[in-house]
Amino acid sequence: MCTYITAVLPSSAFTTAFAAVVAAHRLSFEPCNNPHVQRQLKVNERYTTATGYMCDCGSPWFDAAVEAPRAPRNVDGEVAKLLAKQSPDGKRGRKLRAADPSPNAVARYRAQAPDWLAFLERALAVRGVLYIGLVAHSYSGNAELDEITLQARARHLVEELRDGTLLTLEHDVIHEFRVVDHARRVW
After folding, report:
1. Is 28 in the same domain as 83?
2. pLDDT digit string (tens) for 9-58?
3. Domains in the chain, number
4. What are residue 4's DSSP bridge partners?
């Protein structure tokens, strides 16, 4: 099973200006014709791919294991236990230590988000793009054939990404990213 990120957007978003932003960020908002998902959307919404990759596993937004690596002190304890339990070569312990992220891992993984952050900020500035909903699902097959039951809709401000308060997102939830329209006092 692989995680794949798809998107839900209002039909009004699909303009030449939006396509230019998508192309500039090397994303791929192409139609994803999944009838199971389409039945769960609003009438004026479209379901699309988001990244165009075959697999989005390891995304810092949708993979809790990536976003919250083990603290080095916990790994040191695990390595010591493994070394004590096995042969002198300590193969498994060395493997675990090698897989341990550095103390700066969270910052490194968050650094991947600015591409999404920059995309969302630019795309949401385009007329007609009221929100961009991102959905992650662990697919057992084809994105257009899997029977997906969306669990909820969650609204997020792009500012939550900028200030780092939004970390890992749940799978099978439409995460609507918006900006605050201070003039109209809406988001």
Report:
1. no
2. 999 999 999 999 999 998 989 999 999 999 999 999 999 998 877 777 77
3. 2
4. 137
What's the rounded Cα separation, in Å, for the pair 92 and 101? 16
Q: How far is CA 123 from CA 1, 21, 92, 176, in A?
A: 30, 6, 46, 13
Q: Rounded distance, CA 147 to CA 140, Å?
A: 10
Domain boundary among 84, 105, 126: 105
Taking every pair of Cα atoms in the chain, the longest distance, rounded to a whole number of angstroms, is: 68
Q: Which residues contact 155 (CB under 8 A, 6 or more apart)?
A: 131, 176, 178, 187
Please state the pTM of the whole predicted model: 0.70
| Residue 112 near residue 121, CB atoms below 8 Å | no
The model's pLDDT over 90-123, given as tens digits with 9 standing for 90+, comes to 454 444 445 544 545 445 434 544 478 889 999 9
